[in-house]
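Lab meeting prep.
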Amino acid sequence: MSRSATEFMGTPAGLFHWIPGEMIVIARLTRIPLDDALDTVFEQIRTQLNTLLTRYRLTLDPYGTAGRWEEVPTMPLVRRRAFVFGLHSQQPLVALFFHVHPLDTREGDPLPAALSYIHAHVAYFAQFGLHIVSAMPNWLVTAAPLLYSDGGPGLPPRPAPALEIHAPPQALPGWHLRFAAQGLTLDARNAEDVTVVVLDTAQHPDRIRSAATRPELRRNWLLQRLAEDMRLEDGSFMVEYDRYPVTNDVRTGHDAAQRNRYYLMPDHGLFVSGIIRDLAPRARIRLVRALNDFGGSDLYSLFAILTDLEHELISGTIRRLVINLSLTVLPDFLRLPYLWFQDRQWPTAQLLGAQNVLTSLEEGLRLLFDSLFAHGALIVAAAGNDSYQAFRKGLPPRPPRAPARYSSTLSVTSVNSNFLPSQFANAANLPADTSGVATFGGDSAGVLDQHGLPDAVRGLFISPTFPGGESNLTGWADWSGSSFSTAMISALGAHLLAQGWSAPNSITRLSMGQGQQSEIVFGTPVDISSLLANIVYTQQRFSL
């Protein structure tokens, strides 16, 4: 690695999965509160929770007033501490964000103890009309240096191979993706009636416009197309860069050897958006900055953005919506019990209580996605890239991460250009679910395609320098991961919604086997058995 790359990459100092001392409580309401009454609801519930927690020398403070906000003067101002969702129900839900503060001098994170007391007293709170459906940590969305968990793309981006073809001087050759024939009809109007919202990292709009004028990037057709879409200001491509505040204390990534490393990746969301624009040329794309430049965040941003989208669906501002989530949340399904109960032994009689706790630790997040699904949103989520070590040991892939593992989402995992499982790819499903697919996402370092080139997705990259220190001379990068497979399926989902398909029907159709016949009475085998996924065939080429 060149010396110039040292400022871009780093090694995490520890392994964690949530923000210490930050809690989310999901409660059921009897009606939708008015905006000016939401602060009152927040304080009433906080008072009720503190009535119990002060017995145990703990108290809850308003979010944004303690913890990181006391230690880091540059933390963004928190204007909202509660988010209402589940608007399809007669009894909506509210997500409330708190800091857990110890009233004594105890050391360590007070969050697990506070959650344990709340979980044990759900019936007690119900006696006073406070119906808690979930209490959970502020889980990380991917990872951080002192707050670090598995996450991030399969490996860092690197320069794409430089190829030449005979073309007129004014032509703009470059990399293109296309869906192979597989029994699915693409929309004749290229999905122009569909909005695809991408929650990801983002470059500032001015940087994208400026990059399009750089001499070395003027021949990148995809950059020029997105820059032109932005110039039109008709909603065909827009970047919501600073609508939602993000912090830089959550970071993620792997190096080429699949070791935990973090690096700057503001181009990740632009790379994803470029894939969608290539495959759904007229879809309306909104890139929302939900992750910081290191590819990390927490649940606060996720709840803020997704609850706002639910309100847009209710108001009719958005008619047909695809949500692209090339991100992961929470430890995987198999690791969560060991993580939360690692120092506890549970008698058999209390195992049901332990299961209720595990459900509560993510139920609020699951219900958030259920709400959007109920309003017709097609949610496409990455299964994750955590399975390289399992692959090396000859073990099955890791299960999908949240939110890909929820029934309200379409889970997407990765295969390479030969349509074999990518070495890093998580499974698409938890048995016996069937709502998962696999498509092209590249492979690990050293794997080559049939042309002898690195097996990777090639897409848009505008930062002047790559994480390894190489100069960016073309605007094309090689990148691998289920993030980019997810973008391809989001584009295909936009084509289906544009033709009047519902989100449930789109999920069913996309996750079906392509023309398989089976004499087995109880079902049809999947295309990729180890990933529990059927394949959607996507190919890339260098052309005009």
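Slide two material, second protein:
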Amino acid sequence: MAQNASMEEFEALLNESFEMDTPEEGSVVKGKVIAVEAGQAIIDVGYKMEGRVDLKEFANPGEAPEITVGDEVEVYLRAAENARGEAVISREMARREEAWDRLEKAYADDARVEGAIFGRVKGGFTVDLGGAVAFLPGSQVDVRPVRDAGPLMGLKQPFQILKMDRRRGNIVVSRRAILEESRAEQRAEVISNLEEGQAVDGVVKNITEYGAFVDLGGVDGLLHVTDMAWRRVNHPSEILSIGETVKVQVIKINKETHRISLGMKQLQEDPWDLVAAKYPLSSVHQGRVTNITDYGAFVELEPGVEGLVHVSEMSWTKKNVHPGKIVSTSQEVEVMVLEIDSAKRRVSLGLKQTQRNPWEVFAETHPEGTVVEGEVKNITEFGLFVGLDGDIDGMVHLSDLSWDERGEDAIQNYRKGDMVQAVVSEVDTDKERISLSIKNVGGDKFAEAVGGVKRGSIITVEVTAIEDGGIEVEYEGMKSFIRRSDLSRDRSEQRPERFSVGDKVDVRVTNVDSKTRRLGLSIKAREIAEEKEAVEQYGSSDSGASLGDILGAALKGDD
């Protein structure tokens, strides 16, 4: 009977063990630490199963493991039994499953989660979220780029989950979103205490090409480079340095974007209020060249007051030249005030007006008829340009090159760089033009030679050459030609060969052409005029007197 009872008890216990639900592999189960040895914790997960877990799986990144005998922990059952008959369990995987459940709920509720940055990877950092590893992009670490993330390593802090995918095991978090949220609250509080026009103290946090960011105690304002000083500021670093405390005025507050515009010059007196009184029109002042452009140069009259010298007002003589070839940056120059526009805060200045107009000076020192000497600077199709005193040029037109040659032919005798003499013909100071004449140097020989000669005059010329068509004669150094038909009234005497070189001949002037510089001469016209005069004095053709008698009497009367 006793033996049958023990068999029944054994059978009952066996059946009971079969009826018990054994844990499913791949699930999280509770266990108890029964021993800690050789860097491992031996955990009893029940159901007659024990497993081993490395102690490091119980430690948070950068911390020592805290585990003692008797502690109850949750582990992940990977396999019920291995080759040694032990359960294959993992605390890390259990923590991960637990963390994913917690993180999914936080993600759904848009709640913050706590974690610690423990490693650096390409493009960012790794974050331990209490068992689950997340990726923190570099752009999400802070509101501004972080050069050294060392102080943030291992520090427990809140994060915002941006994206997660449990199937792929991906979690992306942001620290920046937390900072921006808290910063926005802080900004709202600070901005609520600020008013436009208020003067406040701030600390320069950052300097850029276009201005500086000033911390007003939790909120940044932009101090634009144009609002730093009334004078021109090329770069903010000229007057500011990072960490410097400055007094600024709140110019504008955008309540929606929380952007604040600041100014420094607004706390100083505007120099333009006194410009019109200090710089009257046509007054001359000393200034400093601050900037040079293609269209002119800016000259600072005093800090905050600049004027523009337009390229057309820089030099009397240098036209179409870049301003940089006339003045240089930081050069001290004398300028004249030409115009003031206080509304547009503009002053027009002149550089050349501080010097006398060189054309006026030339007109005073070189009246018309003055002989000048200069270098041929340029040769054009219509004449020569000659360099004169005062760095100005005069022009010799083709028609003023020579008395004897066509202008087109005469200009071939000149080369660039030749030194020439010319007579000042005209000076037009308004048009800045000087007309010169080379042919008038030494006077007008033709005008001098024929000064007392007019049409109808009888003059004596000398034969210089005999040609088939007539004879060449000379009068006071001026050449003329008498055609065959004008050699005599008598056709039989119209023979050039009856004259010899050197003969003196009386001729009548039929034309004085100053343009061609030629005298029209005729022996025939002289003979006809003499006959007419004799007839008028001694008789007519009707009186019966012969021409020989009349001329004989006339000649006798002359004797």
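Talking points for slide two:
The chain has six domains: 23-94, 110-180, 194-267, 271-350, 358-437, 445-538.
Residues 110-180 form a domain with the OB fold (Dihydrolipoamide Acetyltransferase, E2P) fold (CATH 2.40.50.140).
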